Amino acid sequence: MLCEKPTGTNRDDAQSIVDVCRTSGVPLTVAYYRRFWPVVQKMKALLAENGIGRVVSARVQLADYFDGDPKRLWLTSLREAGGGALANAGSHWVDLIRYLLGEVTEVMAYCSSTAGFEVEDTAVAIMRTETEAFVSFSSTWQERVGVNDVDICGTHGRTVASPLSAGRLKLFRFGKEQELFELARSGPAHHELIQELITPLQTGQSSPVPGEEAVAAWRIIEATHRSNTEGCRIKIV
């Protein structure tokens, strides 16, 4: 089964889907397809080889414009969607934070809905990872000039994908010339994920993005919502 993100409307929903698929012997894959874009794979490799040193901080920013859709009212319904700019496209970026930088252990956040939706149209959070790196994350539906950037700073360099969707990656390293990589996708947005999925389906191997990854993303999304509501830092457990 290939399930769209964020998989359900909360962590419990996602866990229920995981449990049903496991009990039924049905392989479950979540469509967090950005993981397999060439630019993300390059960033992953650079970080794995300590290409910019120990990661100190990161900026992850998603901005788009959405003022509602009368044909898809569920998108702005808290009960039916579970969230807005954060839970919708923002969940992709939450997943990328985990994929590139490791588990998030704590979050402090603010959310707003100036557009009058039941769900947030803007979410801004500071996240702490298990390696003590700090991530500035924002996702909004209120900017007409789109942004989708991932900017990671380490003790010996910096890597910037801006915009990530174009596959343009800059690498800055102490004492070296700037490097530029052009790593465009090979097809539609889901193309690389489908390629990764074919062999596991044919051979019975584990999913490239199992349902547990959706549960983990929801854990962060819910902590972000809770931090905004309670006005405090939330530890993610």
Q: Would you write up a description of this structure?
A:
This protein is α+β, with helices and mostly antiparallel strands. It has a single domain, classed as Dihydrodipicolinate Reductase, domain 2, CATH 3.30.360.10. 31% of the residues lie in helices and 29% in strands. It has 6 helices and 11 strands. The two termini are 27 Å apart. The model has no long low-confidence stretch (mean pLDDT 97).
Largest sheet: 9 strands, mixed
Distance between the termini: 27 Å
Compute the number of structural domains.
1
The neighbouring-strand order within the major sheet is 10-9-8-7-3-6-5-4-11
Portion of residues in helices?
25-40%
| Overall shape | globular
Essential attributes:
237 residues, Dihydrodipicolinate Reductase, domain 2, two-stranded parallel sheet, 6 helices, 11 strands, 29% strand, globular
Which helices and strands, and how do they pair?
Blueprint: E1 2-3, H1 11-24, E2 29-30, H2 38-48, E3 55-65, H3 78-81, H4 90-101, E4 104-112, E5 122-129, E6 134-140, E7 142-154, E8 157-161, E9 168-173, E10 179-182, H5 191-203, H6 211-230, E11 234-235
Parallel strand pairs: 1-2, 3-6
Antiparallel strand pairs: 3-7, 4-5, 4-11, 5-6, 7-8, 8-9, 9-10
